Amino acid sequence: QQPVQSPQAVILREGEDAVINCSSSKALYSVHWYRQKHGEAPVFLMILLKGGEQKGHEKISASFNEKKQQSSLYLTASQLSYSGTYFCGTEFPGGTSYGKLTFGQGTILTVHP
Amino acid sequence: GAVVSQHPSWVICKSGTSVKIECRSLDFQATTMFWYRQFPKQSLMLMATSNEGSKATYEQGVEKDKFLINHASLTLSTLTVTSAHPEDSSFYICSAGRANGNQPQHFGDGTRLSIL
User: What's the start-to-end Cα distance of chain B, in Å?
Assistant: First the structure.
């Protein structure tokens, strides 16, 4: 049930773009995206609730394709501060799963000057 | 944004010791808190869901008697690792969520536990 993220790792030069994908084998209720720096706790980026929903914050945006049971995170004109491990957290519909997130294995993003 | 405080930040102790980790939501009432464990270079694995005033719900494979969770108030949940052994060494992170759905989880800073 763990969502699958791709790619596992990506290396960028400052200013380049990247896309991180998150796919689930089960229907999703919502998708949450987090970034974690080494030795720190994950930091919330955004949450997508509805199929077709797209959100953005500065140069980071995401989309949620409910039919395909997948979400993508887009990082535009990357900055050094974007380096870290990105996790998608998926929430499945159903009473016992309420609010519970299952995280993907993570995508390591490294941005070089 | 919401602030979740977790203490202590790190613990080093001898095998057989019990360790208590606190997770507090500072600016909202968290009816649900989640406890995760993360091994180096791995993902966050949910250990249990803690609901205020009721027993915690543990994920499959997590020993209830080893990882005791108490959620006595809307702002505090505690995780006690009883009789800890070296294999329990890990990064433990709590998160807090609001009563209504569709809200993000806010994570504490984590506790690095090292058992010698």
Answer: 37
